[in-house]
Amino acid sequence: MTRENEAREVLCRMGDLLYRRGLVHGSSGNLSVRLDDGWLVTPTNSSLGLLDPARLARLDASGRHVGGDPPSKEAFLHTCVYDVRPDAGAIVHTHSTHSVAVSCLDHKPGAPVLPPLTAYYVMRVGDLALVPYYRPGDERLALAVKEMAVKHAAVLLANHGPVIAGRSLNDALYALEELEETAKLHFLLHGHQTRPLTPEQVAELGVVFKS
Fold it and tell me: Has 133 been annotated as catalytic?
C-alpha cells in the first residue's frame, strides 16, 4: 500500500471515530493530511462518518484541487495553517459542542480562553488562541487564522469551533478530545471556586514534557 493510500484509509477511519464519539454531526467538520506533494482533505458537504477513501479531495502543493470530490469549503483553514506550521502533518476542524460553547462566551481581552484546569490540557492543547468572528468563507478568516497559527497549534474560531494541528491525525485528535473535555469541565465548574494550575506549575510542565 502506498503512503497516500494508507493516509486515505487512516483519514476515513479517523472521520468515523470522530462521528461515533459525537465530536462531529451532520456534515460539519473536516480533516486533512499532509502528503509529500500536497494534501488530502475531506470533501465538501460530506459526513465524516461515511467517508470513501477514493473520493477524498486531493490538493497539490499550491492548494489547487487536482483529484477526488470537491474539497471542504473550509479547506483554506487547513492550507493557511500548513503554510506557517511546517511541523504539522494533519489538521482537525470540528464544531464539537462544548468547544463551540466556549467560543460563544464573552471573553475578556488578554484572559485565557480556558483556564489550565489539568496538566493534560496544558500538555496536549497548550496556549489556546481565540480567533475573532468572521462569516464562513470570509477571506479575512484565513488571514486571522494564519496569523494566530504561527504561535498556536490550537485555535478556537469565535462562534464556530476549534482548528487543531498535530504531527499526525492521532496527535490532533488527542488535542481535540482534551480541549472538548476541558470545555466540559469549565461549564461543570461554573459557579464553583476553582483552582487552576499556577503559572509555575504550567511552566514546569513545559520543561519536563517538552517535545
Answer: no
